[in-house]
Amino acid sequence: MSFLDNLENNLKTLESRDDGVDDTRRREKDRGRALAVGPWAERLKREPYAQTLMRDATIAGRSRRTKVNLAWIDTTLRLEARGHRLELRPTPEGVRAVFLHEGKDIADEPVDLAGDPAKLTNKWMAILDEQKRIDEARAQALEFED
What we know:
Blueprint: H1 3-46, H2 48-63, E1 69-73, E2 76-81, E3 84-91, E4 94-101, E5 104-111, H3 118-145
């Protein structure tokens, strides 16, 4: 084996060790975050706030003739309708309600799990009502063009 081949093998070995260190650090960081988020995630799943929010959002969506999709993704509760999402995300400081449209954050606010989810439901439904108005205006404009 030539000197250059040996040098190249040594460099590859060192690079692979560096990747392993980064992976270990990332795993440790992820584990630490999961431990910090754990109590809030457990509260979100166990307390009646999330169940009431899901029920109220489904009923409010039905009265607006809008399907509300519900999903638990890891520790996050996601409600989705008309291209908008409401995600309840546990953080080390508590649970946050994040409003998203097309993958972009619109708003972010803290959630009181001991409080009433109706305020959050009404805020999200107001956003969906505005989106419905925009969608209907677009449909009329397209209809007018034809």
